[in-house]
Amino acid sequence: MNIKTVGITAGMILASSVAFAQSSTVTGAAGGAAAGAVVGGPAGAAVGGIVGGVAGSVLEPPPQKVVTYVQQAPAPTKRVVVKEKVVVGEPLPETVVVTPIPDDPKYAYAIVNDQRVIVEPSSRKVIQIIQ
Q1: N or C, fewer C-beta in 10 Å, the chain?
Q2: 21, 16, 91, 22: which is closest to 56 by C-alpha?
Q3: Are the C-beta atoms of residues 45 and 36 closer than 8 Å to each other?
Q4: Which pLDDT score, from 0 to 100, does residue 106 have?
């Protein structure tokens, strides 16, 4: 397999990981390696494992108790609207106030553009959008 093929394979895996992350969460290195192996054999598995590991370490799904808490949390009286689209893996704008989850400080939430989102408090990155 030549360098060009490896590069194309890595690009395809990265693009599919980003697209998948916007609608859900990714499965990390194992998922990336499996997808890479299907597309590019052993070399694809290595590239996919690296890409999936990087994406998966940021976007691990929160526990169900966190999701339930965010679903049941009362909405603020003042509606928060931002121009930017809320996207999994991207940070919320600094103008959005995030509220920590009392029983699990690894997570916080916000209600933005009428969407409930779970975020990582220190980076403000969106982990999951509650539908």
Answers
A1: C
A2: 21
A3: yes
A4: 95
Mind spelling out the 3-state secondary structure of the chain?
Answer: CCHHHHHHHHHHHHHHHHHHHHHCCCCCHHHHHHHHHHHHHHHHHHHHHHHHHHHHHHCCCCCHHHHHHHHHCCCCCCCCCCCCCCCCCCECCCCCCCEECCCCCCCEEEEECCEEEEEECCCCEEEEEEC
Q: Where are the domains of the chain?
A: 3-58, 64-130
The answer to whether 43 and 50 have CB atoms below 8 angstroms apart is no
Residue 17 CA to residue 14 CA, distance in Å, equals 5
Chain-centre distance of CA 43, in angstroms?
Answer: 25
In angstroms, rounded to a whole number, what is the distance separating the alpha carbons of residues 75 and 116? Answer: 9
Report whether 76 contacts 116 (CB < 8 A).
no
Per DSSP, what are the bridge partners of residue 130?
A: 116
Cβ neighbour number for residue 131 with a 10 Å cutoff: 7
pLDDT tens-digit series, residues 3-45: 555 445 555 554 444 444 443 444 455 555 555 556 566 766 5
